[in-house]
Specification:
CATH architecture of the largest domain: 3-Layer(aba) Sandwich
Strand order of the largest sheet: 1-4-15-8-5-7-6
Bound molecules: adenosine-5'-triphosphate, magnesium ion
Number of strands: 15
Number of helices: 21
Strand content: 5-15%
Helix content: 40-55%
Largest sheet: 7 strands, parallel
Shape: elongated
């Protein structure tokens, strides 16, 4: 498989490699001692001369050979620039910061590993940010653009500004891709010698360039030559298979399932709300009885405690976002009783009591697994004439019954089976739509998980609070929330373009990674 195959681990932890590269380190340090004699401008001229020379090279092999040749001196130039910067004050994210770093020998080795397309494994705090400047400078001399990939916008901006001090001192340009930039600004950042940004921004720009940009001049990226991925384990292992998706412009269609069941689910939701409020006030009454206002010392009834716990747990299943419940749970004793009830209900293998508790409700929501289940009460509520409308038939038995039945004509049998299959599917879809709608009502709150703008439901990133315009929840959930909010329901599967991070990073001619915690097994997984 082409692209990103991890050849070998290298870094401070790998003593053999460190030893093998001793001579290179000695050479870099000797060259650096010489460079100390040059005036600042003399050092800068090196960059210009190399850039000029390398810009004439078109073949990848020739470029690689040339870079290998100048590596010791280029690394020495970076090290020397760091030395010259020492004591000077730079501004990073609006704060003054004194530069006081000159790469250690082990960092030179780390830089070499990155240049060779390996993963540099260095413990947290060993200075990977600085290590990256060595191969970044060297490869940026090619003029083909070097991308440094960080895990979040803050680090992209911080590292770009921080390490930018070195690049700029040496006469290279540095850019940074941030979430809210316009295409023109992005293009400028990509046109820099070095560009910092997150994997998501790089990936989305690629998708926009190749999915939506109609003309070459609308594209923002200019190629994929060399990328160094920081925290590579989280980006290329944890998130590797999560595809980035750009969905298309609003298509006026009507996904009738969600709209059709909305009124019923809405009324079911408020009925359950009333029921849960009743449980809450019952619980509140019992709690008061346990703690008389006159402070008299009543003996606490175990049975009452259990009852309180069960009532609270029912509300947790029936209306997990209930404010009344949150309020009662602020009291640690109440929380304890509820958790105890939950624990006991789950301890029983057969879960008889748990099911009995669920049956008190119209539907039960599991916040953790994100499941919503209709109970018998709920099914009766939605479809009093045909409670089975929301029960999936046992297909195996049903098919078997047809085979064992009185009908012997194979054609008729097949017809009966096809009909059964169709019924099963339409029922499954109905159940799915109801379940997604229930989740939309119970777990997704407006202005918390999403906002409504211009007749659209826009996801709010739960970590950063950012609006994730263009992204959609999958599996019908987005449609369900759209139905709930009464905005236009967009058709599912209108993905314009999608790519996994793994495939995105495969496009680079050269790829390297940095990590504090290399997980060997996880990386081997990448080699499949
Ligand atoms: N050569 C050096 N001389 C002096 N200080 C250094 C040197 N290299 C790195 N540092 C300092 O070490 C600290 C940690 O650096 P950095 O944030 O790059 O570590 P890291 O390896 O990326 O860690 P993490 O895994 O937490 O991201 C920084 O404060 C930096 O100033
Ligand atoms: Mg770091």
């Amino acid at each position: 498989m082409i692209g990103f195959i991890v050849k070998k681990f290298i870094g401070s932890k790998n003593e053999r490699e460190v030893k093998r590269l001793r001579p290179l380190v000695t050479q870099i340090n000797a060259l650096e001692a010489e460079l100390q004699k040059l005036p600042d401008d003399g050092l800068r001229q090196k960059t210009a001369a190399w850039k000029e020379e390398l810009s004439k090279i078109t073949s990848n092999d020739e470029l690689a050979a040339k870079l290998k040749e100048i590596l010791p001196e280029a690394f020495a130039v970076v090290k020397n620039a760091c030395r010259r910067l020492c004591g000077s004050e730079i501004t990073v994210r609006g704060h003054p910061l004194k530069w006081e770093m000159i790469p250690f020998d082990v960092q030179l080795i780390g830089g070499y590993a990155l240049h060779s397309g390996k993963i540099a494994e260095m413990a947290t705090g060993e200075g990977k940010t600085l290590v990256a400047t060595l191969p970044v400078y060297l490869n940026a001399l090619s003029g083909r653009g070097v991308h440094v990939v960080t895990v979040n916008d803050y680090l992209a901006a911080r590292d770009g500004e921080w390490m930018g001090a070195v690049y700029k001192f040496l006469g290279l340009t540095v850019g940074c891709i941030l979430h809210d930039q316009s295409p023109n600004v992005r293009r400028e950042q990509y046109n820099c010698d070095i560009t910092y940004g997150t994997n998501a921004e790089f990936g989305f720009d690629y998708l926009r360039d190749n999915g939506m940009a109609q003309r070459k001049e609308d594209q923002v990226q200019r190629g994929h030559y060399f990328a160094i991925v920081d925290e590579v384990d989280s980006i290329l292992v944890d998130e590797a298979r999560t595809p980035l998706i750009i969905s298309g412009p609003a298509v006026v269609t009507y996904d009738e399932q969600y709209a059709r069941f909305k009124p019923q689910v809405e009324s079911l939701f408020s009925t359950q709300e009333r029921l849960c409020n009743r449980f809450l006030s019952e619980a509140g009454g019992l709690i008061k009885k346990q703690h008389p206002v006159d402070g008299s010392n009543v003996k606490k009834g175990k049975a009452t405690e259990k009852e309180i716990g069960l009532l609270l747990y029912r509300v947790k299943m029936g209306q997990p976002r209930s404010e009344g419940l949150m309020k009662l749970l602020e009291e640690p004793e109440n929380l304890r009783l509820m958790n105890q009830a939950e624990l006991q209900l789950h301890a029983d293998q057969k879960k008889t009591d748990l099911y009995a508790q669920k049956e008190e409700l119209f539907f039960a929501i599991d916040e953790k697994s994100h499941e919503a289940d209709l109970t018998e009460k709920g099914r009766n509520y939605l479809s009093p004439k045909d409670p089975d409308a929301f029960v999936l038939p046992d297909m195996t038995t049903a098919l078997h019954e047809i085979d064992a039945g009185p009908e012997t004509d194979p054609k008729k049998r097949l017809e009966a089976k096809t009909k059964l299959q169709q019924e099963f599917e339409s029922k499954a879809q109905r159940i799915h739509a109801i379940s997604q709608l229930l989740k939309a009502y119970c777990l997704y709150q407006k202005d918390v998980q999403y906002v409504v703008q211009d007749n659209k439901v826009i996801i709010v990133d739960e970590n950063t609070g950012r609006l994730m315009t263009g992204r959609r929840w999958s599996d019908g959930l987005h449609q369900a929330v759209e139905a709930k909010e009464g905005v236009q329901i967009q058709r599912e599967n209108q993905t314009l373009a999608s790519i996994t991070f793994q495939n995105y990073f495969r496009m680079y001619t050269k790829l390297a990674g940095m990590t504090g915690t290399a997980d060997t097994e996880a990386f081997e997984f990448q080699q499949i």
